[in-house]
Fold this sequence. Notes:
By secondary structure, chain A is mainly alpha-helical.
Amino acid sequence: MTDLFTNASGHLRARHRAEWRFRWLGRLAIMFSIGFLAIMLISITNLGKGALSRAEIQLTVDLSEAGSLEDVNLKKAVRNALFATFPEVTDRGDKRALLKLLSADSGYELERMIEANPALLGQEPSLWFTASDDIDMYEKGAIDANLPEDRRRLKDNTLSWVRALEDTGALRSVFNTAFFTSGDSREPELAGIFSALIGSILSLTVCFALSFPLGIMAALSLEEFSKKSRWSDFIEVNINNLAAVPSIVFGLLGMAVFLNAFGLPRSSPLVGGMVLALMTLPTIIIASRAALRSVPPSIREAALGMGATRVQTTFHHVLPLAMPGMLTGAIVGMARALGETAPLIMIGMVAFIVDVPQGFTDAATSLPVQIFLWADSPERAFLEKTSAAILVLLGLLIVMNLVAIVLRKKFERRF
Amino acid sequence: MSKDPIITARDVNVFYGDKQALNGISLDVPRNKVTSLIGPSGCGKSTFLRSINRMNDLVDICRVEGEITVEGKNIYDKNVDVVALRAHIGMVFQKPNPFPKSIFENVIYGPKIHGMIKSKTDAEEVVETSLKRAGLWKEVADRLQEPGTSLSGGQQQRLCIARAIAVQPSIILMDEPASALDPIATAVIEELIDELRKKYTIIIVTHSMQQAARVSQRTAFFHMGDLVEAGPTKELFTTPQDQRTQNYISGRIG
Amino acid sequence: MEHTHIVSRFDKDVKRIESLLLKMAQLAISQLVNATKALENHDTGLSELVILGDKEINALETRIDELSVRLIAQRQPMAEDLRRVVSTLKITTNIERFADYAKTMAVRVPALASGDQVDSATKTILRMSALVATMLHDALQAFLTHDLELASATRLRDQSVDQMNSALFREMLTYMMENPRNIEAATHLLFIAKNLERAGDQVCNITEQVSFLVTGEIFENQD
């Protein structure tokens, strides 16, 4: 009798072993997934962290003759400052190479600096200018100085100048706010995600404004107000199928209908938002229907039993209870829409956008499309920008999903 | 107060699709009395109850034939507004189902949607009266803004009763109102029912014969969709006329 | 009534009470028979036994009452079961009284045994006793088998008992007037006859309970 509850039997041991095996398989699966996730994140972070810094070169600019901004020949002033720093450079070819130390926009940089601080006029201030992408890459250690010259990106002369600048402390790396504040550019050192970000935000706004109300209304009418029939079954099957349609198909649809038939402006967040809305609508409808179904029928019965109409029951009782689930579904749908590239490319949001779009009908691009374009570029510097943009995109997605989770937790308590 | 029955049912047949749930039920429900409907599971008593306030309309496959009149008017008539009917007939369900809103809002919802509230003082009065009549006022007067779901089971059920009587119905239907409650809460509800019948006509479906015997003045026994026997409670439980009733009441089925 | 209760314990409990009731009635009848025999044979030994035997009947009454109350508390009997329990409780009282009358008859035996037999009166008493004994037997039978006709037939026989009692009363009056020395014996016999008449009434009460059990109506006495 004493070994009543002890694991004397082999059968019981086999069951425990099977359980242990299963548990460990689960753990392995988790570790595998996290491992891959970690590898991906770490490698992207490594590639992208460089985008957060930017090399700058300090030059002394002679503005002593200038009384106002118009007096200044910006390009010339910068060039002279450069030549002044390296007076030994005389050869024409060398001079051109010297100019390449700075980024192409240095003239505009000088202009902006004078506008911000007019006291610089009539002085000979030492100002920091953005270096070119090659110097930037060198600063980040991406260029191997030990390779033979013909296989190196930076030639010997440039290298010597760079070293000289380093020695005098005229070369530094700063936080690259331009990444977040400027639009796209041919020059990698000047390229930023701002206009793409705005484009994404505008598109998503249009998408939300269209898909959320339509999706909720559709879900309500399907779930609460229609009788179960073959017709409603048919609709349900079709909506489920639509949710699985590849997004590029929606892009083709958008191109054919919105651009060609309706003649709406190409490459605009308006059309982009409309295409994304079409794509997100099935997801929102499905999530909303699930949220509506999760409201217990006893609430509806109580309301109807008191003489509320169907509409009153739905809007006073069912909808408030289902809203957290619906919002969650909408946010998850938005997160997916944020990361969509193919349909937006189809409707032309692939242009080279420098200026920040001001309205819904201006030409724009979106963050994932921007990533796609940058990934195509040959310059080494774009590689880190691409990775950094991917990190920003991932960050946004995580934030959106966190908001969805927080909302759900917050409203669930009230039930 | 008129002596004629407030509800009459004549030859009522109810079908769920092809299955017949009620066979030719004819029953009179007297005013200001508690009528209990008893019978084994699946006998149709809940179906009959829900036919009175047309809650069966919500079930697509349900079909009701025959005549049920409330205050002399056939409620299955084409020009009857179901919403108005349900304001006249309150319902309390087996599992207490207060709205996930505050106690105040729970009680005031019905009067609000039926346009019975003109001012804030009106609202407060209605809430106080209803809660007092439901025997809940003393316990919640100081926390009307708390959610209805924070009350105990018995209190929630009384809140549902308060909610039902706030729209001033003349009839209250109760579908096993105490079956989810402990004995003390049950006794409180039964006492409440006894009080309520002074103002309202009550029809209660119950699984417990003892409860039917305690609480009602008239009892109707249903069996497999038939109305086997209906009569004064004290007679039905001491000398039932039909052998089936005798068997069910004394626990001798089969 | 062929239906058995879902809870088999219920039927067991009811049967137990019924068999105890039957036993009580049989005991009461045998008490009466023995008391009568003792009277007939002036057997004081037998009359002693009868007096002692009354204890058992009282004990049975207590037991049956106890079990009935328990049945009500535990099983909440309804309708016919309820009527059966309520009438059982009343019937035990009737049978106990019946047995009491048998005992008082036995108590008087020693007093009568010392004197002479009063033949005619004794014969009447013997007849009354036999009649009342069969009445009790039939009344119980009617109760256990729900036999309304048997119950009313039994009730009718009480008239004979009453008549015999009246006849004996007149006879004893004459007897006492004949000879004052007869008064003692006659008085005893009168009391015995009176008690037998009362025993008949107790049986009538039992038949009324049968009516209540079967029809659910409380029997209205015609007088």
